[in-house]
Design brief:
The chain is α+β, with helices and mostly antiparallel strands and 72 residues long. It has two helices and four strands; from the N terminus they run E-H-E-E-H-E. Strand 2 and strand 3 form a beta hairpin.
């Protein structure tokens, strides 16, 4: 399953790259990309465990960029 989420308060391209690396390292994430200009996060994970993966993604995002927020 692939979903796109809005990101709030993502300030710079370096922060976007840092966020993308953190999400890609998250257990269960098949692929991920951050579009800084559109302020969007695309995450792909297995259908059955997508909600669990997203909770881990949100925690990883908070650790890498405490100021930004992923809107579910």
């Amino acid at each position: 399953m692939k979903k796109v989420f809005k990101i709030k308060d993502l300030d710079c391209p370096n922060c976007a790259a840092k966020l993308e690396r953190a999400v890609l390292k998250t257990e269960g994430v098949t692929s991920a990309s951050v579009n800084f200009m559109m302020q969007k996060l695309t995450v792909e994970a297995a259908d059955g465990e997508f909600d669990d993966v997203m909770s881990r993604v949100i925690k990883a995002a908070k650790r890498s960029n405490p100021d930004c927020k992923i809107v579910l």
